[in-house]
From TrEMBL:
<dbReference type="InterPro" id="IPR003593">
    <property type="entry name" value="AAA+_ATPase"/>
</dbReference>
<dbReference type="Pfam" id="PF25568">
    <property type="entry name" value="AAA_lid_At3g28540"/>
</dbReference>
<keyword id="KW-0378">Hydrolase</keyword>
<dbReference type="Pfam" id="PF00004">
    <property type="entry name" value="AAA"/>
</dbReference>
<feature type="domain" description="AAA+ ATPase">
    <location>
        <begin position="236"/>
        <end position="387"/>
    </location>
</feature>
<dbReference type="InterPro" id="IPR050747">
    <property type="entry name" value="Mitochondrial_chaperone_BCS1"/>
</dbReference>
<dbReference type="InterPro" id="IPR027417">
    <property type="entry name" value="P-loop_NTPase"/>
</dbReference>
<comment type="similarity">
    <text>Belongs to the AAA ATPase family. BCS1 subfamily.</text>
</comment>
<keyword id="KW-0460">Magnesium</keyword>
<feature type="compositionally biased region" description="Basic and acidic residues">
    <location>
        <begin position="491"/>
        <end position="504"/>
    </location>
</feature>
<keyword id="KW-0067">ATP-binding</keyword>
<keyword id="KW-0547">Nucleotide-binding</keyword>
<dbReference type="InterPro" id="IPR003959">
    <property type="entry name" value="ATPase_AAA_core"/>
</dbReference>
<dbReference type="Pfam" id="PF14363">
    <property type="entry name" value="AAA_assoc"/>
</dbReference>
<dbReference type="InterPro" id="IPR058017">
    <property type="entry name" value="At3g28540-like_C"/>
</dbReference>
<dbReference type="InterPro" id="IPR025753">
    <property type="entry name" value="AAA_N_dom"/>
</dbReference>
<protein>
    <recommendedName>
        <fullName>AAA+ ATPase domain-containing protein</fullName>
    </recommendedName>
</protein>
Length: 504
């Protein structure tokens, strides 16, 4: 052991002697050149090349550094052994990060790359007007030389895209409204926003699964369809019209769409918009990846007929016929159907990308066909009364009721009566919420309510049928020569008698 230590000491002595000899023979300048030369030779024969992505680029922040950090956070939790955890302001998600001087591998298009997070202590604080952070941070990307073209062109673009997506997902969605009625905030913005935390998703939405899947596929195709829209020369936007009776889930569907695509919502209150140019300004201030909603469009403003001339006592006017002196925009004091059509489909509608327009109505028949045509409203979605497949979703969500097969008598009866009852999901969910702790009670109360509704519907239907038949008979009697002899009074007495009989 003693011998070992003495030989180690003499070896260190020789090394120290060699080092001082080298310093004597090679001056520092020459040494630096030698090292640079050796480095070059090493890189010439190495199959790898390296890229440094620093946190700051001079004084401005390097977007690529932030993007890489976010991108790595999406998968580093599976691969890394030592991670940093952060949570941004207003965020509900935790972000994983690569710890200082740690490495992680990634693959892209068949190429494997290595990312290293490099953190170096800053030697001395240079004299600047802005104090610099104590650490210099950056990522070093190691790739094979043969993959250089692929990585530099596609991989870095992919990272930027992916990080945008992660940023949007981590941030809470926003719900914008124009309820201030045209006035701007301090930043000149016409929209007010609040965090959007609606819990409705496509899982909680009660509707036929096939229809639901069709809508989800359509939304996904739209969101992933940039190249398709570019190729076909179409503006990257899509319109959905949701129509159906109140309480069938139109607003819930909009929330589910926003949650599914992680889009913001702009809830446009048309009654607060004074004219077409204000509408256009509102549109210009919306961001991409958003859903622009006009609820109850038939009630907002009179938008029934583009060809109609100006009506008295009605804030609608025709853009194609002059609506007031000097009103080349169809009226500076009113909003027109033409203005709305341009909003959804004109040149101005393309001032942003990746936007969805959703209109809702309880009365589709009241809308002008121009508003409904494809290109404006590409998909017309009828939100119907509750069907049996939709009811099954509600039972599962509210009562945790799993498929029990044909042995459940109540379920069988519900399946028979649900279509005849024509109840909305809103009506049904009220009964289920009330009895959610007693499954059996909930089912029997629901069945009772459905049966009563179905009976009433049946009675109303046959009453209406009878009335129509009576009217038809009356008409025929009046037209025939003998029928004309019966006086009006006698006829109305007879009719009254029939109605009283039915009411009994
Ligand atoms: N299809 C559905 N799936 C799940 N829940 C629903 C559905 N439809 C309605 N509901 C429930 O009923 C409530 C009202 O629904 P919602 O506001 O979406 O109806 P709507 O069709 O927009 O009605 P309106 O035409 O009156 O605006 C919701 O809070 C939701 O809980
Ligand atoms: Mg609604």
């Amino acid at each position: 052991m003693k011998e070992y230590w003495s030989s180690l000491a003499s070896l260190l002595g020789v090394l120290a002697f060699c080092q001082s000899l080298l310093q004597l023979v090679f001056p520092p300048q020459l040494r630096f050149l030698c090292l640079r030369f050796l480095n070059r030779v090493f890189h010439l024969f190495s199959s790898y090349c390296y890229f440094d992505i620093t946190e700051t680029d001079g004084l401005s922040t390097n977007e690529l550094y932030n993007a890489v950090q976010l991108y790595l956070s999406s998968f580093v939790s599976n691969n890394g052994s030592r991670l940093s955890l952060t949570r941004a302001l207003n965020s509900t998600a935790t972000t994983f990060g690569l710890s200082n001087n740690d490495c992680v591998f990634d693959t892209f298009g068949g190429a494997t790359v290595l990312w290293e997070h490099v953190v170096i202590q800053r030697q001395s604080q240079a004299l600047t007007w802005r104090p610099l952070p104590e650490e210099k941070r950056g990522f070093t990307l190691r790739i094979k030389k043969k993959d250089k073209a692929l990585i530099l062109h596609s991989y870095l673009d992919y990272i930027m895209e992916k990080s945008d997506e992660i940023r949007r997902k981590n941030r809470d969605r926003l719900l914008y409204t124009n309820s201030r009625g045209g006035s701007l905030d301090s930043r000149g913005h016409p929209w007010e926003s609040v965090p959007f935390k609606h819990p409705s998703t496509f899982d909680t939405l009660a509707m036929h699964p096939v229809k639901k899947q069709e809508i989800m596929d359509d939304l996904r195709d739209f969101a992933d369809g940039q190249s398709f829209y570019d190729k076909t020369g179409r503006a990257w936007k899509r319109g959905y019209l949701l129509y159906g009776p109140p309480g069938t889930g139109k607003s819930s569907m909009i929330a589910a769409m926003a949650n599914y695509l992680s889009y913001d919502i702009y809830d446009l209150e048309l009654t607060e918009v004074h004219n077409n140019s204000e509408l256009r300004k509102l549109l210009m201030k919306t961001s991409s990846k958003s859903i622009i909603v006009i609820e109850d469009i038939d009630c907002s403003v009179n938008l029934t007929n583009r060809k109609k001339k100006k009506n008295k006592g009605n804030n609608y006017c025709d853009p194609e016929t002059s609506c007031g002196a000097g009103d080349e925009d169809g009226g500076n004091s009113t909003i027109t159907l033409s203005g709305l059509l341009n909003f959804t489909d004109g040149l101005w509608s393309c001032c942003g990308t990746e936007r969805i327009f959703v209109f809702t109505t309880n009365h589709i028949e009241k809308l002008d066909p121009a508003l409904l045509r494809h290109g404006r409203m590409d998909m017309h979605i009828y939100m119907s009364h509750c069907s049996y497949p939709a009811l099954q979703i509600l039972l599962k969500n509210y009562l945790e009721y799993e498929e029990t097969g044909s042995d459940c008598d109540d379920l069988k009866q519900l399946a028979e009566v649900v279509d005849k009852a024509e109840m909305t999901p809103a009506d049904i969910s009220e009964i289920l919420i009330k009895n959610r702790r007693h499954k059996q009670k909930a089912l029997s109360e629901l069945l009772e309510a459905m049966k009563t509704r179905a009976e009433r519907k049946l009675k109303c239907g046959s009453l209406r049928q009878q009335e129509m038949e009576d009217e038809e008979e009356e008409k025929r009697a009046l037209e025939s020569p003998e029928g004309g002899s019966e006086s009006d009074f006698e006829q109305s007495c007879k009719k009254q008698g029939v109605i009283e009989e039915k009411m009994k």
